[in-house]
Amino acid sequence: MQMPAKKTPKRPRGRPKTANDHNVVFSASTELVARLEAFTERLIKANPGIRFGRSDAIRTLLIRALDAADRDNAGQPELPLKESPTTKKS
Q1: CB neighbours (10 Å) of residue 39?
Q2: Alpha helix positions (H), 1-90
Q3: Is residue 51 part of a domain?
Q4: DSSP letters of 41-66?
Q5: What residues contact 83, with CB distance under 8 A and at least 6 apart?
Q6: Could you tell me which of 47, 39, 89 has the C-alpha nearest to residue 64?
Q7: Is residue 44 assigned to a domain?
């Protein structure tokens, strides 16, 4: 009598998780997307052989901006948010 074959667990659908990263979604104007594309092209030209996409460009810009904000505001109290086209008054 043959032993029943072991069932292998069914793999979940989709791309496997690689880290504990979070997806952040936002809307961007056509002008901002064009600027992001231009920045992405500059990254590609400055780093031949390394593949960069729009997400990489956004991460790079956010890290640079947050690092600069941390340096500029070290030891200072929180500043109030200034009204801009992207912020709305409640």
Answers
A1: 17
A2: 30-46, 54-72
A3: yes
A4: HHHHHHSTT----HHHHHHHHHHHHH
A5: 89
A6: 39
A7: yes
Q: What is the largest CA-CA distance in the chain?
A: 78
What tokens does 21 get?
Answer: 């990263």
Query: Do the domain assignments include residue 47?
Result: yes
In sequence order, what are the residues at sequence separation of 6 or more whose Cβ sits closer than 8 angstroms to the Cβ of residue 44?
Answer: 50, 51, 52
Please report, in tens digits, the pLDDT of each residue of the chain (90 residues total): 676 677 788 887 877 777 777 888 999 999 999 999 999 999 999 999 988 899 999 999 999 999 998 888 777 766 666 776 666 655
In this structure, is residue 12 part of a structural domain?
A: no
Q: What is the pLDDT of residue 12?
A: 79
CA distance 21 to 7: 32
Listed residue (76, 72, 54) closest to 64, CA to CA: 72
pTM of the entire structure? 0.60
